[in-house]
Amino acid sequence: MKFLFSVFFFIVLISFLVATIINVPADQSSIQDGINVAVDGDTVLVQPGTYYELINYNGKNITLASLFLTAQDTTYISQTIINGWQVSSVVTFENGESEIAILIGFTITNGFGEYGGGIYCDNSSPSLENVTIANNYALPHGGGIYCESNSNPSLENVIIVDNYAIGFGGGIYCDNSSPSLDNVTIANNSASPHGGGIYCESNSNPSVKNVTIANNSGGFSGGGIFCSYSSPSLENVTITNNYAYFGGGILCQSNSNPSLENVTIVDNSASGFGGGIYCWDDSSPSLVNCIMWNDTPEEVYFHDELGSNTITIAYSDIEGGEAGIETNNNGSVNWLEGNIDTDPLFVDPENGDYHLTENSPCIDAGNPDPIYYDPEDPSNPGYALYPAMGTIINDMGAYGGPNAFAWNPVSVEDNNIIIKPSLCKLYQNYPNPFNPTTTISFSILEESKVEILIYNIKGQKVKTIITAQFDSGVHSVTWNGEDDSNKQVGSGVYFYKLNTGDYQKVKKMILLK
Q1: CB atoms within 10 A of CB 195
Q2: Calpha distance 126→57 (Å, rounded)
Q3: Helix, strand, or coil (residue 415)
Q4: What are 373-409's pLDDT values in tens digits?
Q5: Which of 81, 141, 173, 508 could bridge 167 with an S-S bond, Cβ 3.0-4.6 Å?
Q6: Long-range own/partner contacts, residues 27-35 (CB < 8 A, 24 or more apart)
Q7: What is the DSSP string of 320-348?
Q8: pLDDT score of 418 more than 80
Q9: DSSP of 198-263
Q10: Cβ neighbours of 229 (radius 10 Å)
Q11: What is the overall mean pLDDT for the chain?
């Protein structure tokens, strides 16, 4: 046995020693050329710049990296860009790549894929580290990342922002796939019907830890997260300022049973029902050490038909308490011990800071079971943070519990990303594509004069939908496909613009006849 181990170690050592660093553009003129000549274990090291190309790992377990790999300087992430020219998915993993196929230190942008605008994974489980995935599009699914057929990529220190899917999963789409997310920001993404931030179906059970899910929109359901026959695990997560018609924060349907521990679900909205969580058809989320606050029109809502639903809540701060959960006589609430209904007193929610103030009632109010730590044991959560052995008391919310100590949210400053609440939001129209009528929704935090205009692909104004004063809240208007002269316009790409004077936002839609 010792002999076999020695032979194995020797082979691994020789493989490491002969691994090659391929420099782009010094050794190979393009990134794909570097990948083509690489073999398993090699590193393709890319100098700063914008590379207009599409990348396919071709089954190779290699490392593709910017100079962030060698310098650990985060500015290289925004300086080293792979631009997909809106031709296809920017980066493709489709030949069984494993976790040692690594992508590190890039900005992935301007992809336009049928499945996966930014990154496409099919039966592959690569590692994505210190990557920004921004401004990609999918027709229909997975604006930022698309995962299918048991693809379980690992994402660490990743930003997924401003991506769009005309179908499902504006940020991430999962079909029978369970990626792991650690220290990830998913913000400002949108999907036409379902899953603005994350979409999970068909036994997709991602592990979501230390993650920010903010300002995403699902045209119909699941602004932050959509679950169908899936049960993701969430730990130390903020789900804030997301929007959908049903389930602004989370939508659970068809036997979906997500587990939430130390999760903050705040300031989400639905123009229909379930601002925080919407349960449909035999779904059973469970919450421990969580905060649900200021979600409109209610924190939790059960659909009134199909299979009955259940929600289990313990040691959590729920606005309105048990009485505020609308079951529609189609399910039950397991209201366990330790729950409260008190303002959590966040530090600065108006600017996206959901830490607790020192006098918050949620401090030391979570599960009272002691969590022991040893400052000399790196496997313990209090390692190097406390001078002596003792216990950690759980707080409620995303920044409580033992795993919050290691959560330093990934920086977005170098990417000009704003995830704090804005005074106005424009959501993706639904349905999209449409014929001939579609609904355009928006929200405002204070009374404002609102103008919504329609433009064709040439930038010519087609229709003024409305110019009127609106109260604060979520509003919707309808476009019937007519121009200002009340004539039907033709099929094609159109843009709708929200204008409040201080705020302007444009989104794209497609009319098919």
Answers
A1: 38
A2: 10
A3: helix
A4: 444 555 554 444 444 444 567 899 998 755 554 455 6
A5: 141
A6: 31/55, 31/64, 31/82, 32/56, 34/64, 35/60, 35/62, 35/64
A7: TTGGGEE-TTSEEEEE-TT-B-S---EEE
A8: no
A9: EEEESS---EEEEEEEES-EEEEE-SSEEEES---EEEEEEEES-EEEE-SSEEEESS---EEEEE
A10: 18
A11: 88
Measured at the CA of 219, the angle between CA 113 and CA 497, to 5 degrees, comes to 85
CB 437 within 8 A of CB 480: yes
At 133-179, the pLDDT tens digits run 999 999 899 999 999 999 999 999 999 999 999 899 999 999 999 99
**pTM score, whole prediction:** 0.82
Supply the DSSP symbol for 402. Answer: G
Tens digits of per-residue pLDDT, 83-116? 999 899 999 999 999 999 999 999 999 999 989 9
What was the pLDDT predicted at 402? 52
- The two three-digit tokens of residue 361, written as one number: 């009632």
Cis omega (within 30 of 0) for bond into 378 = no
Query: In whole angstroms, what is the distance from residue 427 CA to residue 224 CA?
Result: 13
Please tell me the distance from the alpha carbon of residue 184 to that of residue 48, in angstroms, as a whole number. 23
CA distance 332 to 310: 5
DSSP summary character for residue 37: H
- Tokens 């029109």 belong to residue: 297
Cα separation, 244 vs 226, in Å, equals 10
- Distance, in Å, from the CA atom of 400 to the CA atom of 430, rounded to the nearest integer, reads 37
CB atoms within 10 A of CB 74: 18
- Assess contact for 77 and 103: CB atoms under 8 A: no
Tokens describing residue 508: 């794209």
Going from the C-alpha of 444 to that of each of 225, 426, 465, 473, 502, the distances in angstroms are 22, 9, 17, 5, 12
Q: How many CB atoms lie within 10 A of CB 76?
A: 24
Indicate the length of the chain as a whole number. 513
Cα–Cα distance between 334 and 357 in angstroms, integer? 29
Domains and CATH numbers, the chain: 426-511 (2.60.40.4070)
